[in-house]
Structures are given as structure tokens and as C-alpha cells.
Amino acid sequence: MVSSTSNLVVSAPGKLMVSGEYAVLEGAEAVVTAVNRRAYARVRTASALEAPAEARAAYALVERSLGALGHEATVDVSSLRSQGFKLGLGSSAAAAAAAAGLAFAEHGHRLDSLEARARVFQAAYRGHQDIAPQGSGADVAASVYGGFLRFRRHGEAAEVAPIHWPASLRVSVVWTGQEARTSTFLARVSALAAAQPERHRALIGALKQEAARFLDAVLASDVRGVLASTIAYGAAMGTLGDAAGIPIVNDTLRKVAELAQQAGGAAKPSGAGGGDVALAIFPDDRSEQRFGALCQDHNFSLLLIELGAQGVCLEGPHEPSEARE
User: Fold this and answer.
1) Got the DSSP string for 215-274?
2) Which of 101, 148, 107, 105 is nearest to 125 (CA)?
3) What is the Cβ-side half-sphere exposure of residue 80, based on CA atoms within 13 angstroms?
4) Quick one: which of 23, 24, 113, 142 could link to 34 by a disulfide (CB 3.0–4.6 Å)?
């Protein structure tokens, strides 16, 4: 165990859901990626803010397993927010992963082996589930393992494996300017399942089918297939939202999708929808640049984000800084 004056800092990346929203909760395989905006966990000092509940739960789970550390963690998630808004980049999952990683590091464990990351994932996943049980865990997996992943949930366990993103595909991330509350959307979809189970099953079935097609296209480096499935998945999310009485694909997200297709690509919500961010995918640099110009014309904000970032890791001393758009 280290003292409360330790300078250990552990970071974990945020995430973007690429495909599999809603369907992943019903057993489908999702694609998720880590982003280069990170949460930073360190030993909490008297003046530091309390860590998010998910991070406190994950930290406590490691303590119960390996021994009490005698202090608390604090987590800086400022790079996953902008001007007071959450961006939909999985800040609570990143906080849980960073806090769990910090607790393991304080106990002298390395974080760079698959075995170590599996242990961090279990603590972060369980801690996150204790606070937000409706989540799939895909966001936690991205924050722990990094890169591009295929993810499937199996009750309390999960299948996680790295995948190669096709080199020719370009991705832009659009901030809609509006926060979305995932728990509210999930609750409305659950209400649809209870009230109209057959209709819900059919809608989720369509999403499952398209999630499988998307993953197959990525694995085959089938650019046209990825673009077609992106469009289809966004449309299926919109149909689910209409049935549940919620704007999963709201006017802004619909317009982003139109602009992406106009530029020669495809776009869909990333996450539960209703706001937060959209993911736009393009076959080459030229179409991505056309999309950027169209977004500027329509006053849509593109976030400066790189995909496939490194997973949870030990850092040097870190000072919080304002996120840049």
C-alpha cells in the first residue's frame, strides 16, 4: 500500500459506441471504440472533488478484494465534458475504469497485461453496474481495454475482443449541442417491451440483424457494407424511438445523417440518441472534408477526437486542463 501523498495517476479513455446500441442489451454483439479524451484518477486530497459514484464503487471493490488503502480517489473527467455539458463519451465508465486501475496500481499491480486489464474490467464493470445497472458494459470495456472492440454481454460476464478498423474509413464526431439522459431513453424502451413485447422484439431483432451486418462488414474491410449498415442502423434506431415515443433520432441527428450522405458517407447516433454525439463515417478524406464544410455551413460542431485510443494505463503527474473542441 502507498501513502495518501502518492503521485500515482491512472487514466482511462472515454468511448464512442460505433454500432449495437439497444441491441447489445438483448445479446447482440456491439462495436465500441476508445477515444483520446481521458479520465484521470489520483489519490484524493482535502481540496479535491469527490469522485463520481461509479468510480467510488469500483475503487471500493478493489479495496475489498486486495485490502483497504486508507484514503479515497478523485477523478478528473473534464476532458470528457465541454462548457459544463457531458458529451456522451462515457465519462462515468472512464471514471470507474481509472479508479479501479488506480486501486490496483496502488497495490503494486501492473496495468498493461491482459490478465491485469481483465481484473480492472471486472471491478470497473461491477462498480458501474452497482450505480447504473441498465448499462451494457461496452463503455467500461472500451475504457479498460482501449482500441476498437467487439463486445457481447453474458449476464454478469462479457466477451471482449479487439478488432481492426478498416484503414480507409474516416470518422467524424459531431456534437449536437444537447445532452441526452441515457437512463430515460432506456426506461422508455423497457416500457415498450412490457406493453408491446412482440413489437419490441421485432424492432430489437432488426437492430440485432444490422449490428451483425455492421460487424461482418468491418471484419471484411467492406467499406460499402459499413456505410450501408450505418445508414440502416440509424434508421432502425429511429423506428425504435418512434415506437417508444422518444426522439432517439431527433431533428439534429437526422440532419447530420442527411449531410453525411450528401458528402458521400453515413452517420448515426452514437449511444442512446436524443442528443449527445453523432458518428459520421466516410470512405476517404475528400468526403470527410466535404462533410466538415457542410457542418460549418449548418453550425454543427465537430469534436477533435481520435479513435482507437490506449486503454487504462499508469500516467505521470497530471494537471486538469480545459477540453478543446
Assistant:
1) HHHHHTT-HHHHHHHHHHHHHHHHHHHHHHTS-SS-HHHHHHHHHHHHTT-EEEEESS-S
2) 101
3) 24
4) 142
* Neighbouring C-alpha atoms within 13 Å toward the C-beta of 261: 13
Specify the amino acid at residue 31. Answer: V
C-alpha grid cell, residue 24:
447489445
Position 273: which residue type?
G
Q: How far apart are CA 15 and CA 271, in angstroms?
A: 10
How far, in Å, CA of 67 to CA of 70, rounded?
9
Q: Is the pTM of this model over 0.85?
A: yes
Q: Which amino acid is at 70?
A: G
With residue 172 as reference, give the H or E element that holds it: strand 170-175
Asked whether 39 and 91 are in contact (CB, 8 A), the reply is yes
- The SS3 call for residue 147 is coil
What are the two backbone dihedrals, phi and then psi, of residue 259, each rounded to the nearest 5 degrees? Answer: -65, -40
Task: Return d(Cα 280, Cα 260) in angstroms, integer.
Answer: 6
Residues 87, 80: contact at Cβ < 8 Å? yes
pLDDT band at 316 (very low <50, low <70, confident <90, very high): low
CB-based contacts of 258, cutoff 8 Å, min separation 6: none
